[in-house]
Write a structure and sequence with these properties.
By secondary structure, this protein is of the alpha+beta class. Helix content is 23%, strand content 36%. The chain has helices at 17-44, 47-52, 108-118, 164-182, 191-204, 207-213, 215-227, 239-246, 382-395, 431-435, and strands spanning 59-67, 75-82, 85-92, 99-104, 128-130, 139-146, 151-157, 256-261, 270-275, 278-280, 283-286, 289-296, 298-304, 309-313, 319-324, 330-336, 345-354, 362-367, 378-380, 399-403, 424-429, 440-443, 450-457, 461-474, 480-493, 499-504, 512-517, 523-530, 537-541, 543-544. The strands form 5 sheets. Strands 4-3-2-1-6-7-5 form a 7-stranded mixed β-sheet, covered by helices on one side. It has a 7-stranded antiparallel β-sheet with strand order 10-11-20-8-9-12-13. Helix 3 packs antiparallel against helix 4. The chain is globular and about 70 Å long.
């Protein structure tokens, strides 16, 4: 203990008695002060105070939604107290994964109340922040109803309240355990519509004739599925199955299937390739569509779906597409195949878009011309937009599919050569890898977070260029259209060469890309992006704006 000395004031008294009294008084004050300070420190560190800050919240409804850069980061978790018990609902939003919707006996709400108390989620109430300039990334939405009627509501787009990461981790761990315990993959089927439609279609369609008609397409998809992730090459119409293949170590021939339907009753049978979600009475069913083809002398690709562009068949034979361009952008599209047509026509498109360049406010719009342009659209209120979302969701039907594991492959016997023009590949590399190599590089964007895309080619190409991209639209054939600006001209590029581009990823919408010419004189255009399934680097084909 440190000794503290207080000098006594000088006092001219007889014998020094008053001086000693004053010294004793100062010593007594010092001891009282030190004891008092000690008591205060003990009170501040009291465990009882800590426990008060972690009281269990009594919750009757809990809903947590998160969207991110990959499909694994896009989910909805909820639990609600009902008269029948606690209703557990989970959904993997864009991957077509496990859906749980059932009454459970486990006291989920109590566990969620403990998490809410531990991280003081009540302090999140009213949080509503976003980074306006970021068009993609991560978003969250939290809604809690307490037993006393009070509510907690919080929303964020690339901005998060204190303690978010730890709280999110515990919430996800809890629900992931529940999904493992209660998970099911029951097919959502409009029973009467699906069964009647299937019987009607089967009675009019010769499956063997259709397999011959669409044989090259079926063979191609079969080859890709059976080859697995190591041999996958992207081709038009294969984005959806490509995501499945690249995210699996297994051969997915039992989870991907095909069906033949005359969707518009014009006598021409369409080919639909999609995800198999479940089995009923020995038949396989699904609703998530990867590609649709019609036939006019040759197969025509009508549309293709993937994790951020989910396609479905509605009960009236039209196609519904749910598109996501990141945190700010959503699209609900409804297309019809007119009789004897080789491309789809837009019935309705609903979309969100920033009202001006300030990014301060998002608007909700609708038109029938199929363009995401405010100038040709009517503005809606937010409730109308989400009401349409619910309506379309209720009209989705499941249909019977034949697994590719049951497909009779013909292949080379058709005597038709299938070629692939994608000779350039890409992968992410680290700064250290770049510095320790002799790879020539170009800095397209130095903003953070910066990534490095290394390019390689399997054959000689010419006029390799680095491009700046600006998204414009999707053409009637489903191809993304970008305007381009040349940033750097590399020139001739061979199989012994390598080249790296340093750029910034602002989301899955490409902001940078490449173009090159092959020996046949064709120019090819690709955006540099990342896989929505595992985050790996990918080249995405696009059409340049003319």
């Amino acid at each position: 203990m440190r000794l503290v000395y207080f000098p006594a004031p000088i006092c001219m008294t007889e014998g020094g008695k008053d001086v000693r009294k004053i010294q004793l008084m100062y010593l007594l004050i010092l001891m009282i002060t030190l004891c008092g300070c000690g008591k205060k420190e003990v009170l501040v560190q009291s465990p009882k105070e800590t426990l008060k800050q972690e009281e269990v919240m009594e919750i009757t409804l809990f809903s947590f939604t998160h969207t991110g850069m990959s499909t694994k980061e896009c989910f909805l978790y909820s639990a609600e107290q009902t008269e029948a018990g606690i209703r557990l609902y989970t959904e993997e939003l864009f991957s077509g994964g496990v859906i749980v919707d059932r009454i459970v006996e486990e006291d989920i709400l109590k566990k969620l109340g403990e998490i809410a108390g531990k991280y003081r989620l009540d302090r999140w109430n009213g949080f509503d922040k976003s980074k306006k300039q970021v068009k993609d990334g991560n978003t969250f939405s939290l809604s809690i109803t307490l037993a006393d009627g009070n509510t907690i509501s919080a929303h964020g787009s690339n901005r998060f309240p204190d303690g978010y990461s730890d709280a999110k981790q515990e919430i996800c761990e809890l629900f992931e355990d529940l999904i493992d315990q209660y998970g099911n993959q029951e097919v959502k089927v409009t029973e009467a519509v699906t069964e009647i439609s299937t019987e009607s279609i089967e009675s009019q369609i010769d499956s063997k004739a259709c397999e011959n008609q669409y044989g090259t397409i079926l063979d191609l998809n079969y080859e890709l599925i059976m080859a697995g992730s190591e041999a996958y090459l992207h081709m038009d119409g294969t984005s959806g199955i490509g995501e499945v293949i690249m995210n699996s170590d297994e051969i997915e021939a039992d989870t991907i299937g095909y069906a033949f339907m005359d969707v518009n009753h014009d006598g021409v049978t369409e080919l639909i390739i999609g995800s198999i979600d479940g089995e009923r009475n020995g038949k396989h069913y699904g609703e998530n569509i990867y590609s649709v083809y019609t036939y006019k002398d040759i197969p025509y690709l009508l549309l293709e779906g993937w994790s951020r562009n989910r396609c479905f068949l509605l009960e009236d034979g039209t196609f519904y597409i749910e598109g996501s361009g990141g945190a700010m952008y959503r699209m609900l599209e409804n297309y019809v195949l007119d009789k004897n047509a080789s491309q789809l026509s837009c019935k309705d498109i609903y979309f969100t878009k920033e009202k001006d360049e300030s990014f301060e406010e998002i608007g909700f719009y609708h038109n029938t011309v199929g363009e995401c342009e405010i100038s040709v659209s009517e503005e809606l209120d937010e409730d109308e937009f989400w009401s349409k979302y619910e309506e379309y969701g209720s009209r989705i039907i499941s249909f019977e599919l034949v697994p590719f594991s049951m497909y009779q492959y013909v292949g080379e016997q058709r005597n038709i050569e299938i070629t692939e023009d994608e000779v350039v590949s890409v992968e992410w590399i680290t700064k250290e890898q770049l510095e320790n190599s002799r790879i020539q590089s170009y800095v397209a964007d130095s903003s953070q977070p910066q990534v490095i895309a290394a390019l390689y080619t399997s054959e000689e190409i010419e006029n390799l260029k680095v491009l700046s991209l600006a998204y414009e639209e999707v053409d009637p054939m489903g191809n993304a259209v970008f305007s381009t600006e040349e940033l750097y001209h590399y020139g001739d590029f061979g199989s012994d060469d390598s080249f790296a581009v340093l750029l910034t990823m602002y989301g899955t919408i490409p902001y940078y890309g490449i173009s090159y010419e092959t020996a046949d004189g064709k120019t090819h255009y690709y955006g540099i992006s990342e896989s929505g399934m595992d985050g790996s680097a990918v080249l995405v084909k696009f059409q340049p704006k003319k």
